[in-house]
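Fold description:
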Amino acid sequence: MILPIVAFGNNVLKKRAEDISEGFEELKELISNMWETMYGAQGVGLAAPQIGRSIRLFLVDTVQTQEEGEEGQGIKQVFINPIILSEEGKYWSYEEGCLSIPHIRGDVDRQEIVRIRYKDENFKIKEEEYDGINARVIQHEYDHLEGILFTDKMKPLKKRLIKRKLESIKRGAIEVDYKMKFKF
């Protein structure tokens, strides 16, 4: 089932999310709905706060961003109760966007390597290192669990330039091709 994506301005996007226990009810259904929602909105990642759930869960599919023949370099993974252990390497700038902040894109500097510990959808503990676009999407989605949006990491001038657009999103004065939930 496709769920509405929470728009910029909703308090759930600015809260630190809570851990999930292993007996979390309907987790498989929630994950399935999140995949369907993410693909329906043509995203590469989706965090639970973006569907109004303040829990430490996000999904990433960068396989779809890879060039033909290089799909194996992408990842398709569920991350439950993740903890970023380290971020390393050079900072690199890349234009990011967000399903909760439609029609706004901006350069964000992030380190090129991330080491993360998390539980998969079967609550098996994993610790892995990712780089490049995989690391970037993980860092972006992880920020959602910490109540941080990509716009918070943009340079001050760019933030001023998008202020009116952000206000329009808060008011629901935008059109998108997917279901959204606005705070009125």
Observations:
- The chain has a mean pLDDT of 95.
